[in-house]
Task: inverse folding
């Protein structure tokens, strides 16, 4: 049986990889993928604690987070398509300069 600390270390590693990608990258798709990676890292931690303590509350929260992440991805993809049509780039810095 794998100890809970191993799952938490993997979760922390995934979260920090996602955070580093979020800070370092300028492509909007990569930023969105890093946000999803961070959400999945938190989901892994919730499932780990849920299994360790024998409660199902963490697993229910994971289902809610997955549903919210799916809705967020759909809305974000629609915004990316609209922004690409207007500016013809996916550079995050260009979108930060948009003021109308």
Result:
């Amino acid at each position: 049986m794998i100890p809970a600390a191993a799952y938490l270390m993997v979760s922390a590693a995934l979260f920090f990889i996602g955070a580093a990608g979020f800070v370092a990258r300028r492509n909007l798709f990569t930023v969105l993928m890093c946000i999803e990676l961070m959400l999945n890292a938190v989901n892994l931690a919730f499932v780990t604690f849920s299994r360790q303590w024998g409660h199902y509350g963490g697993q229910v929260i994971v289902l809610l987070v997955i549903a919210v992440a799916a809705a967020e991805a759909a809305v974000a993809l629609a915004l990316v398509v609209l922004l690409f049509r207007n500016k013809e780039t996916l550079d995050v810095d260009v979108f930060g300069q948009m003021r109308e």
Remarks:
- The chain has a mean pLDDT of 88.
